[in-house]
Amino acid sequence: ILLVGRKSFISKNYKKYSKFKKKISTTSYKKISKVNMSKYTHIFNLSIDPQSKHRDYNFTNRIDEKICKKIRNNNIIYIYPSTRFVYEKNKKNYFYQLNKIRTEKTIKKLIKHNYLILRIGNLLAFDLSNKSLFITKMLHTLKNKNEINFDIKKKTFKDFITFEYFAKCLDILIEKRIVGTYNFSSGKKMNIYSIGKSLIKGYGKGKISFSKSLKDDSFVLDNSKLKKIVKFKLYKKDILDYCYMVGQKLKKYNKS
User: Fold this and answer.
1) CB 72: neighbour CB atoms within 10 A?
2) What is the pTM of this model?
3) Which region, left, alpha or beta, applies to residue 251 given φ > 0 means left and ψ of -120 to 50 means alpha?
4) CB–CB of 226/181 below 8 Å?
5) Secondary structure (H, E, C), 62-87
6) Closest CA to 40 of 232, 177, 224, 233
7) Residues 25-72: pLDDT tens digits?
8) Contact present, 220 and 161 (Cβ < 8 Å)
9) CA-wise closest residue to 141 among 68, 4, 151
10) Is the pLDDT of residue 236 over 90?
11) Among 118, 123, 208, 240, which is 20 to 30 Å from 220 by CA?
12) CB neighbour list of residue 149: distance below 8 Å, 6 or more residues apart
């Protein structure tokens, strides 16, 4: 398995929790021309042009397209991390959403059947490096202000998954050489307020506040297709227990 994108949030955590640790190699996109791709069964690209969030597809570095052209004559499964935003019409994420859709279509056109597209829910992990993620935003404000501030309504629910669950599911799909498009999610409606409370409980202090202007950003993904293959579930209690544990890790991090 080749992971492209050494600094990626998903790359670091997948390698950490995967049972295939010893079979995983990592590289940066800049060095991929020097890699002998034929020795890999799967290539998981986690490198993305930052401009793809703000610019039209044609004016971005189309990394996935370039890699797919290199491997399309080999029996390699190309893994692409897509997003739940492909199901929505969202002005705020317009280019990001549109470029993800166009990239999915390009991959399907170039690779034909040897692709595995993952439409991923909200990932949970103890990570302070990426400030744009939902979980890291909560951790940063809790760490620096003893507070979690939401700009979404209290009753908002989201579909969360842990990295242990993510890695376990992906390991199974890789092992069985599964292809196609899958929603990578728990399929559970998790209230954001309860997620915040579990983090604070683990951290040992803090409060939850809400901005004056609130939006509703609720979503849950249908993961019935995934469940037919992986045969196990992620329960609400598992998610809340995980958030409590992440809160405890933040407490230890502050003391170190």
Assistant:
1) 15
2) 0.92
3) alpha
4) no
5) CHHHHHHHHHCCCCCEEEEEEEHHHH
6) 177
7) 999 988 988 999 889 999 999 988 777 777 777 777 789 999 999 998
8) no
9) 151
10) yes
11) 208
12) 141, 208, 209, 210, 211
Residue position matching structure tokens 């290199």 = 70
- The three state secondary structure string of the chain is CEEECCCCHHHHHHHHHCCCHHHCEEECHHHHHHCCHHHCCEEEECCCCHHHHCCCHHHCCCHHHHHHHHHCCCCCEEEEEEEHHHHCCCCCCHHHHHHHHHHHHHHHHHHCCCEEEEEECEEECCCCCCCCCHHHHHHHHHHHHCEEEEEECCCCEECEEEHHHHHHHHHHHHHCCCCEEEEECCCCCEEHHHHHHHHHHHHCCCEEEEEEEEECCCCCCCCHHHHHHHCCCCCHHHHHHHHHHHHHHHHHHHHC
Question: What are the phi and psi torsion angles at 10 (to 5°)?
Answer: -70, -40
Query: Please, what is the Cα angle at 135 between 132 and 230, to 5 degrees?
Result: 115
Q: pLDDT per residue over 153-164, tens digit each?
A: 999 999 999 999
Helix axes 236-255 and 134-145, enclosed angle (nearest 10): 40
Structure tokens at 187: 């399929």
